[in-house]
Amino acid sequence: MRNPIFSVYGLRNARHLCHWPMRNRVFNSGSVTSVPFRCLRPRSSTRDTDLYSLNKKISHLIRNDRICDARALFDSTNNRNTVTWNSMISGYVQRREIAKARKLFDELPKRDVVSWNLMISGYVSCGGSRYIEEARDLFNRMPGRDCVSWNTMISGYAKNGRMDEALRLFNCMPERNVISWNAMITGFLHNGDVLRAIEFFERMSERDAASLSALVSGLIQNGELDKAARVLTEFGNKDEARADLVHAYNTLIAGYGQKGRVEEARHFFDQIPFYLDRGKQGNGKFQRNVVSWNSMIMCYVKEGDIASARELFDLTTEKDTFSWNTMISGYVHLSNMEEASKLFGEMPNPDTLSWNTMISGFMEIGSLTLANDFFERMPQKNLVSWNSMIAGYEKNEDYKGAVKLFSQMLREGEKPDRHTLSSVLSVCTGLVDLHLGMQIHQLVAKTVTPDVPINNALITMYSRCGAINHARTIFDYFKLQKNVISWNAMIGGYASHGFSEEALEVFKLMTRLKVQPTYITFISVLNACAHAGLVEEGRKQFKSMYSEYGMEPQVEHYAAFVDIVGRHGQLEEAMALINTMPCKPDRAVWGALLGACRVHYNAELARVAAEALMRLEPESSAPYVLLYNMYADVGQWDDAAEVRMMMEKNNIIKQPAYSRLDSSHC
DNA sequence: GTAGGGTTAG
């Protein structure tokens, strides 16, 4: 079994086979009037042959995402049967165009059980309680229910967290099959009821590979890795679930991988027999497949253990596109673009994902040119390709390039999604372009339902562009869709625009609502205190960082605190703080002291601060200029002249527009 | 043409 596709098809075929006896049963009971099998095989009459090929064409078009063409074909003829209608309904259901599906269903002259089931599954897959009621309504009204109808309803209730209703249906359905049981197990696990899932699994008289797979993966989703491992070890050895057991193993390997428990993943990987005699009954499919290898390689890649990943990759003959992509992304995450490029070059058929991975890797190391080159050479771009490019330009601060790409994207008819839009909002923030930002906001409102990251990008954009009231409107509007970043953005926005009172007011609200602040919150809070000259408030907040939240103040907080006490004229205290702080003072710290010295005419400490700055940034003219002006202000012309001479001696050229040295970056 | 379970990027 070299190709994983085969195993998938094998499974699908097996499923279809399961339907035959079931369908026959329903059919024989006379509850269904149409003839569901009529078009499965061409008959002698041309009319039937035409119908058969029409239905085949329609489902082919739907499979290839060409629903409009399918509909045109559907509309072009009157020679349709129920299968034709059902295929069309199924196409709409798959694309979640439930209204269109329903319209066809209502117009359908002769509905069979599949038509009803399709509509029910359509409503179920839309999710939400409104749709589940609609599904239930159809279920109640339909003339003859089969096992599929019951199972669809059960899984619908399970997905919506209504296990009570699912259980009621399960208990009163006339005939249950293995899928009914599996749906219940999945449902319990989906709703965190591990015990009942296991109980149902144990009560089943007949289990298949999916039963065990569902239990194992559900347990893993509930964080019960070890229980999953035990279940697999215990039931995996029973014959009934022997075939395709490898799926459950693969799930477990991936589960351990996600938790960083690579050793255990490897343990189970090693337990899957490498090779088994295919002639032996029952064991034929129980061996590692390409997914097993890929899952294990993935574990190593996630851990950053690229050597072990590579070892397996080189060892296995079962490689597919997935394996190559996983290896490449491993190198990309370690910024080893040389090795990534080498593998990419050796890869037989790179797909869009491979190209995208390479692009994001080049972006990560700042190679805009190479990223661009790959982007232009790739045969098939998708939304992720565009998003990676735009996000890359934004992260590398080439905002103009990002905007150019974005408009090119729109011109080529690609529809932006939340990823695109939040990148572009960051671009607007970078450009401080309120006009563009508002246009993107319009687009956001039209195309996506707002979520936390999008709202945060909007708040940041508006506040950075000076429209702080817009930012506040959004902040207030989305009461529940907020996280600590939203709070930080709002507080920081106020603080950086000098609205200290508002910044502190929002901070107080935040603490009242028990939102845990981060160290970024305190940078803004302390800066707000500095701007407003609130010495005691600043002192209190600085102290509370450690005493109330257990946070060790970092260099940025010291800088802000030096600013606070320094502005107030307590220069000695500021100096003492610098001398005792646990981290190395940076330019912001010394800059705050120097600024304070200038305001309060303390030439002595100003010199200390300026010299420290000169050591930190030998090319910068700012400390020289500040010191010079300071000496000039107090009339120490000799010292001023000395500074000027030092500047000339050290080849310092005065740069214009270098006004601020404090730490108010938020 | 309909119901349940497995590994990848922005």
Automatic annotation (TrEMBL):
SUPFAM superfamilies in alphabetical order:
HCP-like (SSF81901), TPR-like (SSF48452)
Keyword Repeat part of the UniProt annotation: yes
Key words, A-Z = Repeat
PPR repeat residue numbers: 81-115, 146-180, 289-319, 320-354, 382-416, 483-517
Q: Name one GO biological process term.
A: RNA modification
Q: Which GO terms describe its molecular function?
A: RNA binding
Family per similarity comment: Belongs to the PPR family. PCMP-E subfamily.
- List the protein's name: Pentacotripeptide-repeat region of PRORP domain-containing protein
Q: Which organism is it from?
A: Morella rubra
